[in-house]
Amino acid sequence: MTASTAQPHSASAANDRRQAPMRGPLVRRSSREGFKVNWWLTALMLVASLTILLPLYFTVAMALKSADQIGTGTGLAWPLPMNWNNFAEAYVATNFPKAFLSTAFVTVFSVLGALASSSLVAYAIVRNWHRKFFRGSFVYLLSAMFIPFPVIILPLIKQTALLGLDNPGGVIFLHVLGGISFNTLLYIAFVRSIPVELEESARMDGATTWQVFRKIIFPLLAPMNATVGIFAFLGSWNDFLLPQMMIADPALQTLPVVQMLFQGEFNTDYSLAFASYLMAMAPTLVVYILAQRWVLSGVMRGAVK
Amino acid sequence: MTAVLPSRRLLLKAAGISCTAALLPLSACATSSPAQQKGVTQLRFMQNKPEVVAYFNQVIKDFEALNPDIHVVQDFNEGNFVPSLVRNDPPDVVTRGFAQATADFTRKGVFADLSDLPSAATIDPKVQALVNSWGQYKGETSAIPFSLAGAGVIYNRDIFAQNGVAVPTTWDEFLAACEIFGAAGITPIYGTFKDTWTLQQGAFDYVTGGTVDVEDFFARLYAEGADIREDAPESFSSNFGPALPKILQLTAFTQTGASSKNYADGNAAFGRGQAAMYLQGPWALSELVKANKNIQLGTFPLPATNNPADTKARVNVDMALSITRNTPNRAAAERFVNYLLEPSVVNTFNEKNAAFSPLMNAPAVGNPQISGLAAYVAEGRYYQGAGTYFPPSVPLGNYIQSFVYNRNAGQFLRDLDAEWRRVAERTAV
After folding, report:
1. Which of A164, A165, A250 faces B75 most closely, judged by CB atoms?
2. How far apart are CA B419 and CA A166, in angstroms?
3. With CB atoms counted within 10 Å of each terminal CB, which end of chain A scores lower, N or C?
């Protein structure tokens, strides 16, 4: 969502830059007027950004409230005094480090698995498109997108239990498997645009298929890797249903499931819940801020292809 | 074709064998993975209330100190119960709230018979009967009640005192009290109709529970199965009619705009003293106190007729203990359940959570918030809410909400009969 609000802004900035040199030599204006600000659009973007900032404000304010500050007022007021203790309490109650590690373990390997498996599959399918088997396997993979997940969850649980996969390892396996059809679809569109001539030159130098993939294709896939990686990261980090039903040992449970602790049937501990949500959100937020450039370009690429 | 078949079968077989060979070490490693110390039995204890995790952690600590050969792991992720059954690896000890959904497991024999446990003999037979009323497996005791929640009308003691209103004991007195509050400019009842379950749990269950013999009605209805007709003596149309005008009388005393308020709004508003009465169970008490530390609360059962002897409280078995049938740790699980049902553990829990202890000689309830229900619970003058008898596939709350809005009692009853028939036809074996 953050991406979509920032995107038009950067696009308009690029527009301005493109027009600036054209206008420059004709009418000599001061540099200040060269960057003409579209105030209407800016105002619109400011309002639009509230859709992100306001909920975020509520989350932070709520996380800092004590029990008796929650029910009072409109909810917009900043809590004074701030109750930093909520974070410590939520940290202890969820056994945060353990749940965090478990979630991180699942996420990291889900992302790596998604990148490795889908790119290999896509490469194999595209370069063997003239063979019936590969075209068929493409349709086979795509058909998985039409099966609603809740329909197959109980048989899957039975199956994974038989295989000894009722643990985070099984969640990773299913994350990779679940994403393979969509991710392959993305990759295939991208691999098609890579000219075969690039490969042929490598072949001339004696590269094997694996070397071609590893040294030529995979690096060229970088923008699509970013897209797939981001989707896989978000899907895996925020997943609730699969870990909730798959992981048998409560000690290995992931953050979104452990956070249910604060929501009883009739009682919700809002301040602790939001403190814990913020802590769980932090890595995603940090990754986004650091990787903003790739996130944006990645999202746009996914949109066009 | 005939020549190809055997070789294909052989191929499949070979693939199957190689697959199992590859997976064997995996599963072997999984079964031995739980860190089992020598001679220590590990019990998994799945309980259904995330808000009491801390209490049970303390209980488990005390239990382990007395029983060093048992290690108990607490799990509050109730969503994992069905998957654990599918995996054939359910937790050893389970607590669940008792209603239609849990009874499904009980009737299929998921839980072991606990009638021989020494602690089973200490339970009030009236409370045990509530659990058993949902259906038993071969006459066994599949669950032992641990906590009994009594619900009624929560009232603000200060507002009652300021207006000189006493706790009503008849329906007319109740209406008169509402009139007095209305005349004084105080909202008599705070309504939260946006959350349909609050209408179901409150107005619907309280009025029907006080005017209809709910348990008997549903026993007859279940016996009738899918053959139910509107004019049959077992139908909703034939039994619930007289109760419905009272529901409308009651909801007429709620504040304007009740249809846009939800449970959380209601807790905040009632906590701030914006109404005299609130149709909620004991689970709301802690939320009300959270909103206002100094609020003085009490609870009385809604008198739904003009005969005080008819007045009953709504109860539900909020937590009942079960041991799963195929647990390999039966002996250890029984020791843990016996410990949980020791008076010091079970009574303390219920005292802390504004609930009633299921023990035969439970101490008198000191909590003024629920003491108004104590006599009714002790005498067994209670019912389990009519709404809890419905299978989850009937959207009862929505039907009640539309009945409260468009006040068409005939339509409401016809809908209930039709819904009941629809589900009964579908689930009939």
Report:
1. A250
2. 38
3. N
